């Protein structure tokens, strides 16, 4: 099982939470014509609604400013190849990831690309190449959060190979 890198997913999580907050704020807020005639909002309720709306608007502005930043070229390329990988075209993903690693050997996404190469070989049933690629993750990126997962995959695949013998 692949270890999740929270830092990489944090912007997406923040955006999702902001959207949920806005939807909740909008759905809770009603216009006076939608209010039942016997319900009259107290001053405290009105202040709470205004505060919630202000916070949601400020957060939306902050996230919009953060998300308008340009995505680094290597990340955009990695994300494009990751789409190929998720579509299940593992042979093409392997080729594309190898080209990525040649072009961006120092990218923060290099360990992910190498790990995805290994798992692509695993999905294709080529356990020998998968083990070699997982070992490369460990050797080249020993401080990566994926190194431990790569070692686990190696141990698992070696067990699979022994079972087939």
Helices and strands in order, then pairings?
Layout: H1 6-28, H2 43-67, H3 73-86, H4 90-103, H5 110-124, H6 127-140, H7 147-164
Helix content: over 70%
Please state the second-level CATH architecture of the largest domain.
Answer: Alpha Horseshoe
- Could you name the CATH class of the largest domain? Mainly Alpha
Mean pLDDT: 80
What ranges have pLDDT less than 50 throughout 5 or more consecutive residues? 31-39
CA gyration radius, whole angstroms: 24 Å
H and E string: HHHHHHH
Q: What's the multimeric state?
A: single chain
Which fold name is given in CATH as the topology of the largest domain?
Serine Threonine Protein Phosphatase 5, Tetratricopeptide repeat
Strand content: under 5%
Total individual domains: 2
CATH superfamily of the largest domain: Tetratricopeptide repeat domain
Give a count of the beta strands, DSSP E runs of length 2 or more: 0
Structural class designation = mainly alpha
* Spatial shape: elongated
Q: Roughly how many Å apart are the termini? A: 24 Å
What about the largest sheet?
none
Helix segment count? 7
Summarize the structure.
By secondary structure, the chain is mostly helical.
What can you tell me about this protein's structure?
This protein has helices at residues 6-28, 43-67, 73-86, 90-103, 110-124, 127-140, 147-164. By secondary structure, it is mainly α. Helix 1 packs antiparallel against helix 2 and helix 5 (110-124) runs antiparallel to helix 6. The protein has 2 domains: 6-67; 73-164, Alpha Horseshoe (Serine Threonine Protein Phosphatase 5, Tetratricopeptide repeat). The two termini are 24 Å apart. 75% of the residues lie in helices and 0% in strands.
């Amino acid at each position: 099982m692949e270890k999740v890198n929270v830092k990489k997913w944090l912007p997406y999580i923040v955006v999702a939470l902001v959207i949920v907050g806005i939807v909740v704020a909008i759905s809770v807020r009603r216009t006076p014509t939608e209010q039942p005639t016997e319900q009259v909002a107290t001053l405290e309720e009105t202040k709470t609604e205004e505060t919630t709306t202000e916070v949601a608007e400020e957060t939306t502005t902050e996230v919009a400013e953060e998300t308008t930043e340009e995505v680094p070229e290597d990340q955009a390329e990695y994300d494009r190849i990751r789409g190929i990988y998720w579509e299940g075209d593992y042979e093409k993903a392997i080729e594309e990831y190898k080209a990525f690693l040649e072009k961006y050997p120092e990218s923060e996404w290099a360990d992910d690309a190498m790990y995805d190469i290994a798992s692509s070989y695993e999905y294709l049933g080529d356990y020998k190449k998968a083990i070699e690629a997982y070992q490369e993750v460990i050797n080249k990126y020993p401080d990566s959060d994926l190194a431990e997962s790569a070692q686990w995959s190696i141990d698992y695949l070696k067990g699979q190979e022994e079972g087939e013998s």
